[in-house]
Amino acid sequence: xxxxxxxxxxxxxxxxxxxxxxxxxxxxxxxxxxxxxxxxxxxxxxxxxxxxxxxxxxxxxxxxxxxxxxxxxxxxxxxxxxxxxxxxxxxxxxxxxxxxxxxxxxxxxx
Length: 110
Known about the structure:
The protein is an alpha+beta fold. Helix content is 21%, strand content 15%. The chain is built from two helices and six strands.
């Protein structure tokens, strides 16, 4: 979509604040200038992806689905945590690379 993005039919502009305004007018003399505003509440952010995730709290949209069960999430990190806790057997071998010894074989101070 040119000029913005959409979450369930809601459009977000590719830039946010009104022309001619300054940081001082908005009470932000330093730090990040927030340009993306939620159309449903006072939430503002400098990152479009964070706004899209925030809007899901209003819409109830859950685009991230577990391939192993009916679980759905509005946030990718919550799906990742669900899969780790519910579907993967965590072993010492799963935490190693080809040239790294399992933690049980680590020796410190010897």
